[in-house]
Structure formats: structure tokens, C-alpha cells
Amino acid sequence: MISLRYNNAQPVLRRPMDLKFAQQYERRYRTHWWFRARESLLKNALKNIHFATSPAILDVGCGNGLGFEMLDPIGDAEGVEGDSNIVSPDGPNASRIFVGDFVSDYTPDKRFDLITMFDVLEHFENRAAVLEKIRTLLNPGGRLLLSVPALPWVWTHHDDLNHHYIRYTKQSLRNELLSEGFSETSLEYHFTWLVPVKFLFRMKERIMTSSSDSMEVPAPWFNKTLYTLARLEQQFFTLKAPAPVGTSIVGIFETGQ
Fold this sequence. Notes:
CATH class: Alpha Beta
Number of domains: 1
Largest sheet: 7 strands, mixed
Helix content: 25-40%
Shape: globular
CATH architecture: 3-Layer(aba) Sandwich
Structural class: alpha/beta
Radius of gyration: 18 Å
Order of helices and strands: EEHHHEHEEEHEHHEHHE
CATH superfamily: Vaccinia Virus protein VP39
Number of helices: 9
Distance between the termini: 37 Å
């Protein structure tokens, strides 16, 4: 764990990703059903954000720039990543990724119309400092699109493996963002069907020690089945009503004009 400092000697702690997980991250991102299903959610969210001109986009916690494929059709995307283990210095996106601490080291000479954080905020202990930094980097009326893990009571070994500090509820995420001067545009739960599954995993881990990696890519047929199930759920709640609960939250917030 690295201790950095922000403004009035406030520590900004971000836990780096587990090294083994980091080394396998890109393969999992491109093949694991959960990442593929999450990408479809984020693409739908991006369709609901409208800009007068091509926006300047910053992806915070961008890793090796894998999310640029989703963001490039919308605007001019660049990123910042604090974990050098998951950034390839000779990769195709290296020239537009700043490697270093987002709060204390990243000082761009521009502001952005859209900032994205895809399952990143929960890795920071001092999230207020991160959100303050984001607000200062957004143009007036700029948007923040983020996804976070949800429901503290389904915390499992997977959260420990990923060095999470928190799992949110809609209300706790709303409170955190509103307290930093953002206004809410949309906030929705996703992956409802995973709630009982995660809860059962948690109960199992309370009974016996578990070191299994829930993000290992399943067998191809099972991976495809789970992806199909996730997409069917997304379509159902899109047509009917917002999901009442879920293991992930996707939110869009806005800065003042």
C-alpha cells in the first residue's frame, strides 16, 4: 500500500490490484462474461449522455486503455492509471495513458466534458479527495459516469482479492457524490440475479476458508450461458422498470453550470 498526500496533508490511499490478477486482467476483460455484460451496460449509459460537440474524455483507472475501444467512437479519450502492473509501456494506448497517482501527480493542462470510472472508486480510501479532483477537472456541466460494486452484505473474498475499501448502496453512493457538489442524473442497480449467488458465496466463506477466484473465466459454454442470462436481465429491466437491487451500480452525475 502506498501513502500519497493531497492538499492539506490528507492521505489518498489506493490499493494496487493483486499482481496475479493484474497479469491476467486483460484476458479476463476480453473474455469473462461479467466484463462483457458490464460493457453492454456502460455502452447503454453512454448513449444517454448527449454532447453538443465531440467531448474530451478522461478514463480514471483506465488500466491498459481497454475501455478506450468503447469511448473512442464518442470523443477524444485519454486515461490515467496508478497501477503500473497493468499498463504496457509499449502498448497501443501507451501514449495517451498517464501512469501515476490521480490526485497528487496528474495535472493536465485541460478540462474534460466526461470523466469515467469503471469499478475504480472503491479502490480508494480517501474517496472525497478523488471526487474533488474529478470535479475540478470537469468543465461546467460536465458528466461523471461510474460503476461500483454494490451491497456491503455480499462482501466476499473477491473484494479482498481486488483490494476494495467499500461496496455501495444507491443511497451511500448518492450521498458521497452529492456531498462533493455533484448532482444526480441517473443511478441504477444491475446484476440482480447475482445477489443470491453472492450471498451464498459469502455464507460459504463464513463456514470455510476460501481462496477461490470468482473472476476466473468459466468453460466456454458456461461463460456464454451466464453472459446470455445477464443480457436477458438487462433487457427485462430496461423494458419494465429499474432493478430493485443488484451487485453493481451504474451512475451518471453532473457538475454545476
